[in-house]
Amino acid sequence: MIDTNVYVSRWPFRRLPGDETAVLVQKLRAAGVVEAWAGSFDAVLHRDMGAVNLRVTEECRKNGNGLLKPVGCVNPMLPDWREDLRRCQERYGMKAIRLHPNYHGYRLEDAVTRELLSAAAERGLFVQIAAQMEDERTQHSLLRVAPVPLQMLPELTKTIQRLRVQVLNHPRPVSWERVYWDFCAVEGVRGLTELLKGSVADSLCFGSYYPFFLWESAALKMKEAGAEGAVLEKLRAGTARVLMGGTGR
Fold it and tell me: Which of 74, 75, 197, 211 fits a disulfide with 16 by CB distance 3.0 to 4.6 angstroms?
């Protein structure tokens, strides 16, 4: 199984079971995960993205014996973001970057977003966009952050060549060209079941959002949906390999 959505380090507002990397790795291995794409909670509020990306790279190298694949973060509102992007690929060998537009203060409609996505695509990096990190109902009163509006995303993937995007933590995945999704935030009885009946099914990847969410939550959604055979294999790893390799839809 490939888990496309995990985090290392500490969530700023409370401790989470599994927020120590060794514990996280132990949990993933016990669950049968052979590869996990790991961003850093530090990327949400820290301003020194270079230091964040270095730490997540070192943390993944020290733990898991190759299980954890570091995913960098680039904040285009900071002056040295192009250098951060270059280092992600050239120095750290990353295959992806993970963006947090709502926490970093930019929109998908902004010109700098197109510039960043174009630069990532030119380097062959795929882009993960965290639609939300925490339900608005449980956020700290001094830091209210709305989910990322995604209406502009289909136009961006249509006009930026080779751009591949995965949206994380969104409750309602839809079928958009070259846009992939995880289903950790899909709620409601038979929520994943209904998605697997539609055209978005081939765009879904397993992503647990562990340790913020219980790892078992995403696994139980697959079980409830009755996914099996080729459908189950795509959810567990097949579609993630397509996303990572830049082939497919």
Answer: 211
Task: Using pLDDT thresholds of 50, 70 and 90, give the confidence band for residue 163.
Answer: very high
Q: What are phi and psi of 100, to 5 degrees?
A: -130, 70
Query: Closest Cα to residue 22, out of 211, 168, 209?
Result: 211
Question: What pTM did the predictor assign?
Answer: 0.96
Q: What is the mean pLDDT of residues 120-145?
A: 96
Chain position carrying tokens 């973060």? 73
Question: b/e for 24-48, b at 16 or more Cβ within 10 A?
Answer: bbebbeebebebbbbbbbbbbebee
Pure H helices in the chain: 21-30, 42-45, 49-62, 81-90, 101-104, 111-122, 153-159, 191-196, 215-225, 229-233, 239-245
Per residue in 11-52, pLDDT (tens digit) is 999 999 999 999 999 999 999 999 999 999 999 999 999 999
- In single-letter form, the type of residue at position 157 comes to T
The token duo for 177 is: 């060209």
Domains of the chain: 2-245 (3.20.20.140)
Nearest to 105 by CA among 72, 143, 155, 159: 143
Judge residue 191's burial from the number of C-beta atoms within 10 Å of its C-beta, 0-12 exposed, 13-18 middle, 19 or more buried. Answer: middle
**Do strands 68-70 and 179-182 pair parallel, antiparallel, or not at all (unpaired)?**
unpaired
**Residue 153: exposed, middle, or buried by beta-carbon count in 10 A (0-12, 13-18, 19+)?**
buried
Closest CA to 123 of 85, 160, 156: 85
Instruction: Give the sign of the dihedral formed by CA 76, CA 77, CA 79, CA 84.
Output: negative
Contact at 8 Å (CB) between 129 and 101?
A: yes
